[in-house]
From TrEMBL:
Gene this protein is translated from: ATP5F1B
Protein name in the entry: ATP synthase subunit beta
CDD domains cross-referenced by the UniProt entry: ATP-synt_F1_beta_C, ATP-synt_F1_beta_N, F1-ATPase_beta_CD
Upper taxonomic lineage: Eukaryota, Metazoa, Chordata, Craniata, Vertebrata
Subcellular location: Membrane
UniProt cross-references to NCBIfam families, sorted A to Z: atpD
Length: 467
């Protein structure tokens, strides 16, 4: 999994997620007076899935209490397992409740996936006999759906006969692939210093916005992941899964935990934080059939990287790309901190010795420059030794060469976006480290693609200066 972390209120993240253990227990904490049946779901059989509507003869309950997004439902017999989906009857719009706790012998406490306005005591509720199921398959491509799989793009129903539950076990350890391969993004700073593990090509949109009830926001990530898993497991494809923002998943889980009356843990987060995160992240992995590469935005509360929410997320990331205010203040975009960004696949056995040596050389010279900045600020450049002056000169060129014009920003910057192959990226930084361009001005390295463009820009600057 890849992760992009910003030092600011909102941030972006990238990552190919790896399951850290072969098995994961499902997250719900339970208030029990007796042993409680909890749903355990085997490997999905997509061909056997049918419509997610409650079946005839399903257990019937009635609402006994409504407390905001929490709804208590009483059953005379056939208590639904944890995580089962219930549907409220007698409403114009579909309202799905997910079982979160068992209260005694006959009552379940549920979380609503939509607003609970208009619910009354005694209203009929049907047990679907399974967790929330959503449509999957090629028919979902290009469509937008909500947490319960309903299309919200005003293009009619999603015409598929295949449905999958949003709760599932992570792939077995023996099914996972151990091969490591770089996902080349064409972004110099990412490909060189914090490369992403390879993933895929397909995107479908699943929405659960901040105006949604906490139950919907806590499950929308699982809904999107379920769509991605179909393409990995059934179509054998590489899937690219964007999650913006993974902190909202944790935040929604904290809200749900508070609504259920659980005692909070550190900093007020839910006691099941690590389990909730692990259960989801371990499903985002590469198997022998295909892969899922997840790009996740991570909000860091108060810029505290030790906060339980981002810290728990980092444990599952293969690569972390940190966005820095200080870099942005220099006008360098993408504003990636080259010293704080990391990648687990930055290993000479995976990326190759040449790539590894160049990346570490770039980081060393930037770290040396950082340690000299206080001396420069107090005494000036003249007090530095000739060797340190050369280090500063090359570091400033590298710093500017890490900038790159993006296609998405063309309308704002006027610079055409540049996609740089990995070999070109390595070659360019290798030549700068070797001193082949010590004679060029540092301005020539700003907002260019490959190193040849920097040389051409330097020639152009020289012509303008001479004229």
């Amino acid at each position: 999994m890849l992760g992009l972390v910003g030092r600011v209120a909102a941030t972006s993240a990238s990552g190919a997620l790896r399951g850290l253990s072969p098995s994961a227990s499902l997250p719900p904490a339970q208030l029990l007076l007796r042993a409680t049946p909890t749903a355990v779901y085997p490997v999905r059989d997509y061909a056997a899935q049918t419509s997610p509507s409650p079946k005839a003869g399903a257990a019937t309950g009635r609402i006994v209490a409504v407390i905001g997004a929490v709804v208590d439902v009483q059953f005379d017999e056939g208590l639904p397992p944890i995580l089962n989906a219930l549907e409220v009857q007698g409403r114009e719009t579909r309202l799905v409740l997910e079982v979160a706790q068992h209260l005694g012998e006959s009552t379940v406490r549920t979380i609503a996936m939509d607003g609970t306005e208009g619910l009354v005591r005694g209203q009929k509720v049907l047990d679907s006999g399974a967790p929330i199921k959503i449509p999957v398959g090629p028919e979902t491509l290009g469509r937008i759906m909500n947490v319960i799989g309903e299309p919200i793009d005003e293009r009619g129903p999603i015409k598929t006969k295949q449905f999958a539950p949003i709760h599932a076990e992570a792939p077995e350890f023996m099914e996972m692939s151990v091969e490591q391969e770089i996902l080349v993004t064409g972004i110099k700073v990412v490909d060189l210093l914090a490369p992403y593990a390879k993933g895929g090509k397909i995107v479908a949109l699943v929405y659960g916005q901040m105006n949604e009830p906490p139950g919907a926001r806590a499950r929308v990530a699982l809904t999107g992941l379920t769509v991605a898993e179909y393409f990995r497991d059934q179509e054998g494809q590489d899937v690219l899964l964007f999650i913006d923002n993974i902190f909202r998943f944790t935040q929604a889980g904290s809200e749900v935990s508070a609504l259920l009356g659980r005692i909070p843990s550190a900093v007020g987060y839910q006691p099941t934080l690590a389990t909730d995160m692990g259960t989801m992240q371990e499903r985002i992995t590469t198997t022998k059939k295909g892969s899922i590469t997840s790009v996740q935005a991570i909000y860091v509360p108060a810029d505290d990287l030790t906060d339980p929410a981002p810290a728990t997320t980092f444990a599952h990331l293969d690569a972390t790309t940190v966005l820095s205010r200080a870099i942005a203040e220099l006008g360098i975009y993408p504003a990636v901190d080259p010293l704080d960004s990391t990648s687990r696949i930055m290993d000479p056995n995976i990326v190759g010795s040449e790539h590894y040596d160049v990346a570490r050389g770039v980081q060393k010279i930037l770290q040396d420059y950082k340690s000299l900045q206080d001396i420069i600020a107090i005494l000036g450049m003249d007090e530095l030794s000739e060797e340190d002056k050369l280090t500063v000169s090359r570091a400033r060129k590298i710093q500017r060469f890490l900038s790159q014009p993006f296609q998405v920003a063309e309308v704002f910057t006027g610079h055409m976006g540049k996609l740089v192959p990995l070999k070109e990226t390595i070659k360019g930084f290798q030549q700068i480290l070797a001193g082949e361009y010590d004679h060029l001005p540092e301005q020539a390295f700003y907002m260019v693609g490959p190193i040849e463009e920097a040389v051409a820009k330097a020639d152009k600057l020289a012509e303008e200066h001479s004229s």
